[in-house]
Design a protein that fits this description.
The protein has 387 residues and is an alpha/beta fold. Helix content is 37%, strand content 23%. Bound molecules: S-adenosylmethionine and iron/sulfur cluster (SF4). S-adenosylmethionine binds next to strand 4, strand 6 and strand 7.
């Protein structure tokens, strides 16, 4: 716990539990099938067993039907994985048809796309099925970095996927990249920046590699690169993308004007969202729901009574306020204390303002430019995450 223990209830927490339960406007659907598990990946993934895709899709549609009352007019739909493209266009079309009557006409419908799993005809079919935004998992365009991550796609396949997606007419195209990869030099990062800018995408998510429990890299005892080198890589990425006209709107996300990821922004702003499918997580009011992993169990349970195996966690007002601060500070515009309440440590906020780490404008608080490189540490000074 970084901010100091606090036992008395925070005044802001008194009202937060009483917020009305609006219907959810953001839907995440988890499509878990992959051909193989990449070295850094700890997501809920099923390698092989593709013959279960129809049964899985039936179950997903049944779960949506079962939980229909939670959902309002959908502003965003996010098809994540796993490798959603392995569901092929006809299943994606069936899935989107199942929610067509509650999907807003201008909804953002994102699908993650692994470059090696899509071709031009499929991308056109995904577009025709109603996907508006494609998020291409590149991770790097340097062969030895891809190989350190045990990725299957080649740089040429990444470039081909983006080119075909553009031709297919997606409204917005994003690429995911990683920095802080073992063996990735400053020159590799520079080369990735140059090639990403050449791709002409609308949005870039550039994450720092984390060694997740259970991933092959973690099990192999892999060491991450030196912290200072990783910080330099991050700064180089931010500087280059901002200079090229991208807005650095979230810690790891950059958008051309009008191309922020609406689904993810809703999440960072703490909006309610529903998660459907194995391992999917959602938050509605003061409840977090986590679906269990395991396709076979999921399919059987939904077939039996429509309900996916899941657990529920009651979120205390203090937890919700802390999460709202932690996620909101990731955004360029920061948080509005009229919405999220005050931080646990109000004096730390004053100190951070004096130190130039945080800007405060009325009730709005946001990180200064340099503090955005150390956002988690700043959030840790303001909030008692260990409490
Ligand atoms: C749901 S994941 C995977 C989507 C897709 N199957 C793929 O591999 O491209 C979305 C993104 O999270 C990021 N990611 C996954 N594992 C990560 C890790 N261990 N550390 C940091 N970022 C990670 C990657 O950039 C990835 O593209
Ligand atoms: S990183 Fe993506 S493609 Fe690789 S195993 Fe994880 S979900 Fe599948």
């Amino acid at each position: 716990m970084i901010g100091g223990a606090r036992t008395a209830p925070h005044p802001a927490d008194a009202t937060q539990g009483a917020l009305p339960m609006d219907p959810v406007r953001h839907l995440y659907v988890h499509l878990p099938f992959c051909h193989h598990r990449c070295g850094y990946c700890a997501f809920v993934v099923e390698t092989g067993g593709l013959d279960r895709r129809d049964a899985y899709l039936d179950a997903v549609i049944d779960e949506i039907t079962h939980r229909r009352r939670e959902l309002g007019a959908l502003d965003t739909v996010y098809l994540g994985g796993g490798t959603p493209a392995l569901m092929r266009p006809r299943r994606i079309a069936r899935l989107l048809d199942a929610v067509a009557d509650i999907t807003a006409p201008d909804a953002e419908v994102t699908m993650e796309a692994n470059p090696e799993s899509v071709d031009a005809a499929q991308l056109e079919a995904f577009r025709a099925a109603g996907v508006t935004r494609l998020s291409v998992g590149a991770q790097s365009l340097r062969p030895h970095v891809l190989s350190a991550l045990d990725r299957r796609a080649t740089p040429a396949q990444v470039e081909g996927a983006v080119r075909c997606a553009r031709r297919a007419g997606f409204r917005s195209i994003s690429v995911d990249l990683l920095f802080g990869v073992p063996g990735q030099t400053a020159d590799d990062v520079r080369a990735d920046i140059d090639r990403v800018l050449d791709l002409g995408v609308d949005h870039v998510s550039w994450y720092e590699l984390e060694l997740k429990p259970g991933s092959a890299l973690t099990r192999a005892g892999t060491h991450l690169p030196d912290e200072d080198d990783v910080a330099d890589a991050y700064e180089a990425i931010v500087d280059a993308l901002v200079a090229a006209g991208f807005e650095w709107y979230e810690t790891a996300n950059f958008a051309r004007p009008g191309h922020r990821a609406r689904h993810n922004v809703a999440y960072w702003r703490g909006r309610d969202h529903a998660g459907v499918g194995v391992g999917a997580v959602g938050t509605h009011g003061a409840t977090r729901r986590r679906n269990a992993p395991g396709v076979d169990r999921y399919v059987a349970a939904v077939r039996d009574d429509g309900a996916a195996p899941h657990s529920r966690e009651a979120l205390s007002p203090a937890t919700r306020r802390r999460e709202a601060w932690m996620l909101g500070l990731r955004l360029r515009e920061g948080v509005d204390m009229r919405e999220v309440g005050e931080p646990d440590d109000v004096r730390a906020l004053d100190d951070l303002v004096d130190a130039g780490m945080v800007h405060r404008d009325g009730s709005r608080v946001r990180l200064s430019h340099r503090a955005r490189f150390v956002g988690n540490a700043v959030a840790g000074r303001l909030m008692d995450f260990g409490a």
